[in-house]
Amino acid sequence: MIKKTLFVILALLNVYLLGATHNRAGEITYKHISGNTYEITILTCTRFGVDADRDTLDLDFGDGSPIVQVLRINGPDVNNNGVPDGEFIGNDTQRNLYVTTHTYPGPGQFILYTEDPNRNEGIVNIPNSVQVGFSISSMLTILGGMNGHNNSPILNNPPKGDACFNKLYLYNSLASDPDGDSLAYELIESTTFNNAIIGGYVFPDEVEPGADNTISINELTGELIWDSPQLIGEYNVVIQIKEYRNGVLIGFVKRDMQINVLSCQNDSPEIQELADTCIIANTVLSMSISASDPNGDLVTLEAFGEPFDLAVSPAMFNQTIIGNPGALNWATDCEHVRLSPYTIFFKATDDDNVVQLSNFADFNVQIIAPPVENPTATPSFNFMELDWDNSPCQNATGYKIYRRIGSIGYTPEYCETGVPASTGYEQIDLVEGWNNSEYTDNNDVPFGNDVCYMIVTCFADGSESIASEEFCASLEMQIPVITHVSVGSTDLINGEDTLRWMPPLELDTAVFTGPYSYEIFRADGFADPMTLIETTTPSTILNTGLIERTYSSLNTEGQANTYVVKFFNDGIEIVPSNVASSIFLTVSPSDNLLELSWQVQVPWVNSLYEVFRNDGSGVYSLIGSTSETNYSDTGLVNGKEHCYYVRSTGQYTEPLIPFDLINYSQEECSRPFDSVPPCPPVIEVQGECILEDYQLQWTNPNNYCADDVTAYNVYYTPIIGEEFELLMTINSATDTILFQEDLGNVIGCYYVTALDSLLINDQGITSQNESAPSDTVCLESCPEYTLPNVISPNGDDNNEFFQPFPGYRFVESIDLTIYNRWGEPVFKTIDPDIRWDGKHSEPLVNYFGPGEYFVPDGTYYYICIVNEITLQGIEPRTLRGSFTMFREGKKRFE
């Protein structure tokens, strides 16, 4: 607070010493230097040639350090005082740059702030603008750690603009962010000393308001549109440019600027529309841009944006002859690859001899990394050796490895990076380092299948390359290959599974001479530890056919069972089989339907699932099929039990296993019931508080989205932000109006939910579904409490009491004190009815003896704090006033 006060004192002193400074525009930007050190630049635009020119400006860094005076650095030193005097940029305007550096103590958010005594004179939307302080601020966030540093946006278009009366006006600050952060734009009120909003400030379209006078800014592109100015003069706007990183606000810059509306007949030029695009790094983006003018003026094209400021291979734009199309050329580089696109802006300006108007266009360019080349997969017993060429982009941080069973023939779309989930590929690993282009996949590589891979290059900011081509290989069948895990009987204790596997048909028996044996392991569910359940007798002969085992006394009703078969040569384990589980079916009830879903973990590909249902006859019938792992059985009767199982059909791609693999889930039963809540009602408020005819009204969902709504719950809170409580239940679907007399204490916030019919769920419990809440509506109070200005307590029953006028409302209590003309209190009360009859609040004893003291006629004063009932709670309002009291023959003592 002391620092801000010092600012104001210095500013006011400058007013008296120097006169008006006539600020027209300004902003504060910053650039990261190193560590916690930043270069900070204040830009101002002032009227050229005024006496009150600033060689320095005071700057608050926002970290509690002392305010510093920052020297101007641009322009010639006309005054020969060792400080440059700014640059004349035309239109009676001087551009001033004040630059300094500052080292912050550590991470945090800091508000950079400066102010100056006076704005330009005669600004239409700022009352008495020449006497109104000028202030600008920006927010800097130092993130710390590994979160990177932050630079403010670069504002490429100067803060000046001329507009024509009753003509469309366009402006864009053409901001780009060197860190690739997302930018958002908004128009905000202008500020004065201590960063306070200027009293009486209005937006330009609030001067001569109307349908033909609107001003707005595009939140994403920053284009300001004023359609159209209705009064000649100078106007002020403030554009706030906010920076977001990963959805979090990390900074802003406020540009305060003027728009000068003149009497002219010029129209803005027209510029071609541009579509967003992407381009692969190390290729060239080349395109032509054209603009025209409806008045036949020649048009100058300019290009702006981060691509033109890059240190490595910046973009180039050239317009050889005014009026001809301009040429954009950008030889992109791997250094340009990033997650966020680059925005390129074009500005088209006509050469009208009175006011030159501009138009703007922009488009986004996404630079993506090319795919890695020459990927290969080489099988090696029970793992795969992967290899690929290093990415052409040496700034890559690593590679993502994706795998699936069987080829899908995937080819990326134009501009598509990474591997979409729809391909069925799953990421199995991430290797770090640009030159780390080899990988051993020993992560349970499935035997008996073509195993396919794709490689994606990744970068530090999360961006990814185009996926490599698909490449595949298969492991030789040198291990047991499970083909069946099928539930034969469903029970919590006495369930039964059938397990089948093929022996290692491609095992080199000249090396592995036997004897051969197997160990079978089982796990509960999909992830529990494996338990040895059988060891086979060693045999000198390697069986070449299917091996089958049946295991009983299992829980097949409440869980899946997962198996692994380990193979031994002369008592030494060679390689285990892949893991394979039974199908575990889950049935979830809903309204007139049952939702079936199932889980399974197998090394082959299941291409078909068939669903069978038993309606109580004991016979299962096929009701449908799918390639997904879910199925909806619809059109059922609530409360009737249905039982199901699923049959899967799968295949290996290995020719040595040419047959289909048929497996069954457990049986699962359920009853459908209504578990779906109705849609919420749509609520609205009718009536007015002052007329005391408030009513709540809502829609009946049975008329548009439901068929079984039977009741409503009405919820209420008297104060905004507090927890809602159930106010009442209305047991009629058609009763959708509550009148004020039904609500009791009417003021507060309400929402309504719909309830459907009472039903018995699958647990045998009677339940009722409740919808999501409707929108919340609030009934605001309209407090009324008025006191009289005269009373006459003389016993004639007219104006006998000092009391509020009848019909006061929404008053919880008062705190009233009445004073005589000497400031002495004569009466106090907290009763809103008051009913003061002129007697002193304290009984007195005097020379007439004990009695009540009636105060004399005359004028009395009061202070009354009225505690009003509002949506925000009890809010005090202070009434101050006076009233006259007179009697006819009333004695002072009785």
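[next item in queue]
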Amino acid sequence: MDRLLLKRLPRDFKSNIGRYFALMFLIALGIYVIVSMVGAADMFIFRTEENKSINMVEDGNFTVFIPLTDEELETLTDDGTVIEKAFYSDVKMQDGSILRMMRNRVSIDIVMLDEGHAAEKTDEVVLEKRYCEEHNISVGDKISLAGREFTVSGIGAAPDYEMPIKTYADAVVESSTFGLAFVTDEAYNELMTIQDDSVQAEEYVYSFRLGEGISASDFRKKIEDLDFDYEKVENKYFRETIDNALEEKYNIQDDVNKLDDGARELYEGLGELEDNNDKLLDAVDELFDAYLETAEKSLNEEGVFLGLTRENYAEKLDGLVNDINSGKTEVDNPQESVDKINSLKESLDSLTEFADGVVEYTDGVIEAADGADELSSGTGEMHDSIDELLDELFNVDLYNLTSFVTADNNVRIGAAAEDVAINKVAGLFAGIILLALFTYVISVFVINQIDGESSVIGALYALGLKKNTLLRHYITLPVILTFLGGIIGTVLGFSPIGVDNMTTDTYAYFSVPKLETVYPLYLIAYGIILPPVICIIVNVLVINKKLSQTALSLIKNEQKQSSYKQFNIKTENFIKRFRIRQTVREIRSVLTVICGVLISVILVELGLDIYVMCDAVKVSNVEDTHYNYQYLYKYPDEEVPKGGEEAYIESLSIDNDGYTLEVNIIGLNEESKYFDAVLPEGKHKAAISNSIYERFHFKDGDSFVLSDSATDSTYVFTVEGKVQYSPGFTIFMDIDSMRELFEQDDDYFNAVYSDKELDIDSGRLYSVTTKDDIERAAGIFVDRMMGMIVLIISASVIIFCVVMYLMLNVMIDRSKFSISLIKIFGFRNKEIRKLYLDGNFIIVAVGTLICIPLGKKFVDGMYPMLISNIASTMQLGYPWFLYLIAYFGIIAVYLIITKILMMKINRITPAEVLKARE
């Protein structure tokens, strides 16, 4: 019996060849879409990870002001860390483009060549592949660098420039204006000696691979600990910035130095006076003694001998006056003598006071000298204390380090793999929907097949055939076909029209070497094994139930009537009454048709969501950009250029489903010309952009956390309003509050916005972003995603058409007995169409009205997960005409299919009733 059933399989296939091919095509198409999308993404993800060890991709890089010495390099590499010079100089080409000239890499970030060989001679150069593609350069061509002719020996890609942008701040890849060139050490050194305006200043960059157990933060600390004399730096803007930052400190130090010098001079001057004290006292004593001696001589000439001294002159002279007045001492003219004696005494008193004053003066000089000594010592101690205090107040950490970027934070590294991660998620998401669709189609198809062969199955039962044998028989052909469909879809998915086709946009944007396709086992199993496994499960469940009927019921082909409650229909129109009752009887079939429409609509709307979002990014990013120029400073100026508006910008990050996304914080003045923002005051209050609101749905009063990986710190902000600004993720703060939060000076700014080009020295700037740059960057989304959009929508439309045909065909097959019966009653084909197909039209029309918004809501709910690695606006609203196109497109498909099905209805004969009777 098994042999007989096996021989029946080819006849079954031939009799249902259209359905089987449609089912196989559906499976093959679905698997093709999944494998091509996911396989392309896996190729970049797996190969990029694999090439990290082959190309010795850096763990990070850092830039310095002054090249490191051999001793410093030895200090940094003593823990096993590997460092390689990656110095470069940008060379301006004749067409205005820039080639970043570097030495050949040896141990880190090794260039992978697609064509040719590395530069071995001093006149050979290797160029980056995307630049060559944009300029139609091939191996063997000649190019001129700074007046020297080079031969292109190779074309390839550098792993640290997978996203070949000139600066980290660049928003979009423009390979027509920027590329890389690698030459020998000798050629590079020679070019560095050329004095040419086309050759820009050399940048001192070092790439590194960390030693075992060494973290990036530890390595950075070692660099910062190296001795650094900033006065050796030739960059005048850096010197100017440091001098401005330390100007007040220097002024205070100068004043303290003057005070210290004055105290020291005072001490030295008083010391000299102290040294002359003895001489001054001796001179006063000599003067007093000489005056006493003169006075004594004058008295002796008058016959008076007193023996005057400094101690007794007052007493002796007063006694002499008394004696003259009393007559004890007789003189010729007593009054005259008394006057002379009193005058002498007054002179001696004056000399005594002078001598005492000199003594007090010398004592004061000694005390002042001692005080000046203490003052000088005090000012010295104060000088040291003030120096320490100034070092704390004016804490400007000066390191020989201008930038330090780890590979994880380097947007150039692994950019392609990170970008296609969304394709993988979208493919797997679409795969889940397609598998649900396969399950649905297979179950309906098998049920219809069992119903059509009911009498055959009953006869086989009557002959004693076991249910399990029939079960194996009926699942064999569907399993074989789904298996073949899976193989075809998987093979096509991994073929050039699959994976290779899906990689075109990535290769046309990123600088990635030609990669070999990967064949992950899970994806092969997904494409080949999963469809037949689902088919087996569904068929076993469905067929087992159907084959549980009795042999007689199966032979009679008894139509199982759906149980439903009787109800009255008020309309007297027969056709309307018939349609309503037919719909109620076939409610399960109706629901399955609607489910098929819903699943197909979900796929279509997934593609439309991708397009609508990309188009919204293209339009909104430009509309919300009201400035024409954004200047981001590396070395801020003291004053805002005329015609510019100052701002303060910092970059932090936010976690989104495991992805770290950049968030820009822009500090603005109260009335900004270029941003329509109401700025809350407070260092933890911010207004959020609409792109953040659309992704996270923050409301006023909500708090969220941003982090700074460079300093390992976090910041909490409270939402206070929303700003219409779509480019990237942005929050807005009052500039004074922001300065306070990040501990900057009251007049600090590092960005300027303007509606016209400003005269700012390029040496001060980190980057210049124009509105044209934003417009080009926004347009990239549509261009790069268009391939996937077309693939998803095209596949969805095809799947929808096939599903719609199969489902309507099933409904006709299920009604074949009824159609045959009413033909016996004399109904014409046009009337039969009104009873069956036009009734289904109403169901499809109403069901589509429900499915389109329901599917839209479902896709919109899942979409944030699909773009969790992208910081952008997420405007998913359709313009009204897209809904109309989708709706009337479905209706048009239904009408075309009904035309096809009418041909089938025309072939149904009254004999179908006779086949079903006893």
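[queue empty]
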